[in-house]
Amino acid sequence: MRQKIMTHVTVLVILSVLLTYLSSSLVLYYKYRGDMEADVMKEAEYIRYALENVGEEYLAQDLGQLTTSRITVIDSRGRLVYDSNPDNTEEKYEEMEEFQEAGKKGTGQSLKFSRILSQQTFYYAVELENGDILRVGKTVDSIFCTMLSCFPLLGLMMVLILIVGFLYMKHQTKKLIQPINSLDLENPLKNVVYEELRPLLKRVDQQNRQIASHVEELKQAERVREEFSANVSHELKTPLMSISGYAEIMKNGMVRQEDVPEFAARIYDEAARLTSLVQDIIELSKLDEKNGELPLETVDLYELVRDVSRNLALPAGKKNISVQTEGCPAKIRGVRHVLYEMFYNLVDNAVKYNREGGWVKVRLESGDKGPVFTVEDNGIGIAREEQDRIFERFYRVDKSHSRKTGGTGLGLSIVKHGAALHHAKISLESRLGEGTKIRIIFTDPEVKTDTEERESS
């Protein structure tokens, strides 16, 4: 930046000096030439007056030594009468412009260049009373010669200006750039020296905020990842240790024959729990990594609700829990297996964490912006201080009860991620010992209920 400023200033100084020199030379030249022409005309009038009053005796005097002008007199037939420069006696005066013009109008003038434009001569001719023509001429340097003669002075002046300008601009450039070099990019808007930089500094500040936000998000993601890894290790380790322990006891023949079925059943239950945990982890990984790549299709939510209710009828029957399903068909664009997992996990939790002889109500109804899926039960409920964390991975309200029921702690996390994927909102109402009500409100503009489809068709 500094080099560019110095280069531009140097070019500007050179152009300024040249243009100033050129313009001043032109002005002075034309003023000088005008004064010279006026002097020649006055001198011609003086000589004409002397010739008309004194006669040709005036020419006999050393007139050529009294003036630097060239004086020439010719008669009416073009013959030379007098010339103060006798070296040019072979000129054809009758053919010259100024003589011809003076013979016709009484006066005439011309400007002639010679010696490759290095000199110019102004001639002024006037007709005398006796018919002779008097011409006075003065030779001066041309404007080109005048300008060339001033080039050494111009060069010296330009060098001096460049030196002074360089030193001054070096100081000014350093003074201008210093605030930019000392900008606090961490807090760019704290002290804005140049208002022209404010838009740029605003963008820097905005980017700083975005970077800080992204760093915080990355840190949070790293913490979640570490916590998730630790939880996964712990959750996988527990059933594996149980399976390994039971299998080792059986291998060493430390189990009575009549107890083998019981130990086999425990191994089977732990293996089933391990399988369920791995499946949930895989499902969450898919939702995390392929949020925008999962294939969408038209899904009938009410059909999924009925499938879930049928598949959970047996576990509910074992605890004498009634599952009531009601609603109307509603179709949305979504991922079928994710929606099924969401509904299944919510109804499954309502059955698992319910009391003997309780009830579960499953409803699918039309809301203002789309379908609303509701699961309500009269089970153990969730304490208020626990409600904000139940959708976290591996978080359990009652860890001992969760172990007993075979929960993985990932079901509600899958529900949360699935809702985000389908632009849905989750609503939770629960009281400890009274029951829980969870609603999923779909707000996707592509959602259509069965009634809307019939109206559109």
TrEMBL record:
Gene Ontology molecular function terms on file: ATP binding; phosphoprotein phosphatase activity; phosphorelay sensor kinase activity
Location in or out of the cell: Cell membrane
Protein name: histidine kinase
Domain Histidine kinase: 231-446
Enzyme Commission (EC) number: 2.7.13.3
Keyword Amino-acid biosynthesis: no
Enzyme type, top EC level: transferase
PROSITE patterns found in the cross-reference section: HIS_KIN (PS50109)
Organism: Candidatus Blautia pullistercoris
GO cellular-component term (any): plasma membrane
Catalytic activity: ATP + protein L-histidine = ADP + protein N-phospho-L-histidine
Swiss-Prot/TrEMBL keywords: ATP-binding, Cell membrane, Coiled coil, Kinase, Membrane, Nucleotide-binding, Phosphoprotein, Transferase, Transmembrane, Transmembrane helix, Two-component regulatory system
Coiled-coil region list: 201-231
InterPro entries: BphY/WalK/GraS-like, HATPase_C_sf, HATPase_dom, His_kinase_dom, HisK_dim/P_dom, HisK_dim/P_sf, Sig_transdc_His_kin-like_C
Entry's transmembrane regions: 151-169
GO biological process terms on file: cellular response to phosphate starvation
